[in-house]
Specification:
Elements lengths: L3 E9 L3 E4 H5 L6 H8 L3 E4 L7 H15 L9 E5 L10 H9 L7 E5 L5 H14 L6 E7 L12 H4 L5 E9 L5 E9 L7 E2 L9 H5 L21 H5 L6 E2 L1 H22 L9 E4 L4 H11 L10 H4 L6 H11 L8 E8 L3 E8 L1
Parallel strand pairs: 4-5, 4-6, 11-12
Antiparallel strand pairs: 1-7, 2-3, 6-7, 8-13, 9-10, 12-13
The protein binds oxa(dethia)-CoA.
Length: 355
Amino acid sequence: MRHSKIAGIGKYLPEKVTTNDDLSKVMETTDEWIQERTGIKERRYGKKHEETTTTMGARAAAIAIERAGIQKEDIDFIIFATLSPDYYFPGCGVLVQRELGITHKEVGALDIRNQCSGFVYALSIADQFVKTGMYKNVLVIGAEMHSMGLDFTTRGRNVTVIFGDGAGAVVLQPSDDDSQILTTKLHADGTHAEKLAYINPGSHGGYHSKRLGEEVDYGYPDDDTYGGIFLTQHMMDNAQTYPNMEGQFVFKLAVQKFPEVIMEALTEQGLKPSDINMLIPHQANLRISQFVQRKMGLRDDQVWNNIQKYGNTTAASVPIALCEAYEAGAIKKGDLVCLAAFGSGFTWGSALIRW
Ligand code: UT7
């Protein structure tokens, strides 16, 4: 059977460093609180009006393409995972295609909306395309420009201090040796969709909150007004256009689902946690990663953490961490690498890779 491998990998982190102390100047928070609860010391923010989710994705992609030893013209398909797209539509897939100048073959471009697990979902889809022989060089990008959409007041501090900007990308190709993606496992449960969400602007019209018995006033007009109501003035005035998160609820599920989905992949492959050379967990919270590490019985050198420097970069966090580990020489040919992510939806997944 045909398999795919990661033939090239790249990352891009914007230059601007924002420390916890910087944030404490605009909202009531402290370096001590942030470090104690999340492990984060600083994060990067893209340069407003110059950098976007797409441009950062393109920078990471260009490196991945070069390292894969191909030209951009060789790309057969593009998959872009993000929750902070440049536009509501069209998605970043087509924008990055234009940015990189890959328009000559009119290759397909797909956007993935799976938040923190977006890259793992994207990788799994790319893997299926390569396995079936449909495409040879699939570009997979995870990128975020969170800093444009966060609430930088005390009201938003429980979410804002966590997130950062950045991008990571890989090129998947058919494998001709043992280097390959062994398996991917994807899961979702939409029961608690609103526990970690960015719901406005949208077409929901208050439906879900009513269905859940938690009717919220979004300022929709009472009459049968047509259109233009994805976004109301009421939403703008009442801070309903920011992400919201019930942190402890998410935390408790995350520490359950990470080990579950890692074990599911290992068990299918007849492997055990001690076989993992490098676990790359989605960088949601250092405390979550440490919990998972303990639960799986892994040593420090078997888990890659970089949330201290970059915060949570959602769909970008797994490819950034994977790229960083690779560049540091912490992943060698033949190593068993495990990717795992959990986040909004809730959606979660894992991938086992023989490097
Ligand atoms: O990547 C997507 C998946 N996301 C996650 O996995 C996130 C999972 N959850 C978490 O990481 C944690 O729940 C947080 C880091 C978000 C929050 O930590 P926590 O220990 O669960 O804190 P909390 O939300 O229970 O808040 C504790 C207190 C509250 O004050 P009171 O009510 O006890 O007076 C908050 O208002 O901390 C307060 N607080 C803050 N204080 C200073 C919340 N945010 C901040 C802040 N600075 N930034």
